Write the structure tokens for this entry.
Amino acid sequence: MAYSFPEEVLEHVFSFIQDDKDRNAVSLVCKSWYEIERWCRRRIFVGNCYAVSPRIVMRRFPELRSVSLKGKPHFADFNLVPEGWGGYVYPWISAMAEAYPWLEELRLKRMVVTDEALELISRSFKNFSVLVLSSCEGFTTDGLAAIAANCRNLRVLELWECEVDDRSGNWLSHFPESCTSLVSLSFPCLDGEVSFSALERLVSRCTNLRTLRLNNSVPLDKLPNLLRRAPQLVDLGTGAYTAELRPELYSKLGDAFAGCKGLKSLSGFWEAVPSYLPATYSICAGIRSLNLSYATIQSPDLVKLIRQCPNLQRLWVLDYIEDCGLNALATTCKDLQELRVFPSDPFGVEANVSLTEQGLVSVSEGCPKLQSVLYFCRQMSNAALFTIARNRPNLTRFRLCIIEPRAPDYLTLQPLDAGFGAIVENCKDLQRLSLSGLLTDRVFEYIGTHAKKLEMLSIAFAGDSDLGLHHVLSGCNSLRKLEIRDCPFGDQALLANASKLETMRSLWMSSCSVSFEACKLLGQKMPSLNVEVIDERGSPESRPESLPIDKLYIYRTIAGPRCDMPSFVWNMGERSALRFS
Amino acid sequence: MERTVTYENDLNLKATELRLGLPGTDDSDKQTPSGVRSNKRTLSETTEECRSKSNSGTSDARNDDTETAPAAKAQVVGWPPIRSYRKNSFQPKKTEAEAAGIYVKVSMDGAPYLRKIDLKSYKGYPELLKALENMFKFTIGQYSEREGYNGSDYAPTYEDKDGDWMLVGDVPWEMFISSCKRLRIMKGSEARGLGSYV
């Protein structure tokens, strides 16, 4: 101790360490470092809001300025988590209102956020400047109005894919005339109209505005005015991109885009009409990110636009792009890092577009920097997967969704085990993988053997037996999140790998073969896990114990069973077990 | 041993019934593979083939499994894994001129709310008037060039590009949809007077 630096020096050194993992490592060195570090930590990321309690967080880190929280499991995005499951942010806000009066930033994902919570945020934190809500629900535009009205230093307000009730109270007009601090304003998921005059005035006076993402209620003829007032924009999400063919509007739009020389990202394009796309051409050379996933335009027009963007790094698009469009992408965009192709007609029985595995193969061949893929298609082959794996060993995210569950290799009718096996074997840095198609336990053997850096795995309609799950749990050393639906995985693999679950953030299993008995056993043996059985059919006690439960969500926690479980969720822990007797 | 459960969209008790029968004993159609499809077939060929009920020997094996109801397949909850707001991107191939709809507001005297309709979705006046009748639950009288709408308290009118209020039906349909800015269903004496101004 006599040789250690004074606290102030250590604190200063620690201030250069921002990464969460590094900070955590620092805190483990010795008791005094733990103490110093905890007092000077300013940002925290809580990947599962139920893994810890507000009180525990506040007790350890008294001086936070930035908090990120995630609530519901990922499969909530696809309606697999029943309404009312949990993820309420209010208790956190209420605790932080007391403990962190200087809180500046809040980032929430998949949480239930009420207007009361938003109002409390707006009143409790004098320096509040950043609010990012992703996939959240439970609030209305009244809550947004409170944020707009009361947060004097608001710099960032971003709403991504949230479900918001529109109360038509003109929330945007609640930004006071004195508000000039906005750097990012993003509300593409809102349904309702906003006051155009309020929007224009707001954009005019916020001279540092870099990101502006509108919703589709903002018509195209309002866009030129907005762009003219914000030539410094870097990230633009248009509103509706449709209008009658009017030469004066077209040229106004073209001029307005040309004035925004710093634009790097474009999105929006609802109801896009191809004839207005060339208005963006003047700035396309600088575009790094293009989100056309709402634009129902056909391949030739998509290709014309993409050919203008040789520096594109990220493309989100509908499958209207087709294989030929992806060929064009592969020849034009050599810097492409991320590709997402969404289905235009996911429930159609037959393909409505000519998009096959070929498109993805082309991009994997032509784009050497491709790392991240999300691809919906209707046919796949092992051969294509081999090619993709060979071409792109640098893939870090590979999410393939073959629309028909259990679809085999369409050429050989074999399972796609070998193809995905090639992916995990070649792509040694693969962090995220989503499987689809016909798959046996074999694929899981490959995954367990090779996917050593895999952190998140999504499985659906795959496997033959518990062996599959066992391979994954015993082999994937870096696994943090595992989500499974409709697979014949059951008790044995789960119980045999119980301790693995403590090293992961969470495990989701629905429509599998895990018995109530096994859940109880797991819950009793593993006090550091919350083993939650979710079943809307009624208490699992009312059925034989050996029968499979509906949904299972297991996550590690230091906060014990949560107090806000609805009637269709049961915790299998030791203390909870007493409730059943 | 595989256990498959088919989920329907609504709460379907049958779907929640636990069945541990032998594989292959339930009536799910998911067991069959996607069918032998030659990758050389063009898209239009495949679609045509699938649409025709009289299947030749080379038809897609999956055709045998499809129910009589077209396109409507038993949907599995949460599959394919896309967010709900992304589900409605399907638009049959349209020419550019067709792609942009002509949305106009429709008001009716006495009704507390307005409606919005896409004029492009109607082929002509009869369809449009029928739709308006259904939407606002009233009847429009018989149209005649000389007398306007007879036999009803209501008359459909529209505001054109010049800001003038016109009686619906006076001009050819194509001209109407390109000049109509909004519709108003007039009621009462105002309406009755409209036809007889000519």
Remarks:
- The mean pLDDT of chain A is 95.
